[in-house]
Write a structure and sequence with these properties.
Blueprint (H helix, E strand, L loop, with lengths): L1 H22 L2 H18 L10 H37 L4 H29 L11 H27 L5 H9 L1
Helix pairs in contact: 1-2, 1-3, 2-3, 2-5, 3-4, 4-5
Length: 176
């Protein structure tokens, strides 16, 4: 149920992000989406073990889903601007290589991030097969699933906002 609502939320927000991207700079749309991911993830801080928090978990994951899709919509557009710059600057067509590198880094991020999260939670003694977890195990799970993703999400927002190619600069690149 959580994954399905996360996906539906993302699907419903695709058009929203496209419309917002027509009004404001693309990097701000991406940063806004990342901000929703951070906010949705932070909502999970108040969750306690047990079944009484399902509605809050659903809301948090719907917010995360809405935010994540902003990057899915905007990142390829910004990547195409970067490819145009590369073609203009170096007089070489490397779009397949650049796009492949982007996809590889995305997949490595999810693989390493997921593995690191499991490692950290396990390091603190979290075991999903036990009925009751210690406070230390819950801390490790929260660190891995909430703390570090929020930290890296905030860093990602900073990097996204520093993307130098604006619509004006991209038009200059295209004219040249």
């Amino acid at each position: 149920l959580v994954a399905v609502l996360n996906m539906i939320s993302g699907l419903l927000f695709i058009k929203v992000w496209v419309l917002v991207a027509e009004k404001i700079r693309r990097k701000f749309v991406w940063a806004l989406g990342l901000s929703l991911v951070v906010i949705g993830t932070l909502l999970m801080v108040v969750l306690e073990p047990g079944e009484g928090n399902l509605s809050l978990l659903l809301i948090a994951y719907m917010i995360v889903g809405a935010g994540l899709v902003a990057g899915e919509v905007i990142a390829p557009v910004i990547l195409s601007d970067i490819i145009d710059y590369h073609q203009w600057k170096f007089k070489a067509d490397c779009c397949a290589g650049i796009y492949s590198l982007f996809m590889l880094s995305t997949k490595i991020n999810f693989a390493i991030g997921g593995a690191l999260a499991f490692f950290i939670a396990g390091w603190y003694g979290f075991d999903p097969s036990v009925a009751e977890s210690s406070a230390e195990a819950i801390f490790g799970l929260r660190l891995a699933a909430i703390g570090l993703p929020v930290f890296f999400g905030l860093i990602a927002i900073i990097f996204v906002l520093r993307i130098p190619i604006t619509k004006h600069r991209h038009n200059v690149i295209r004219r040249r």
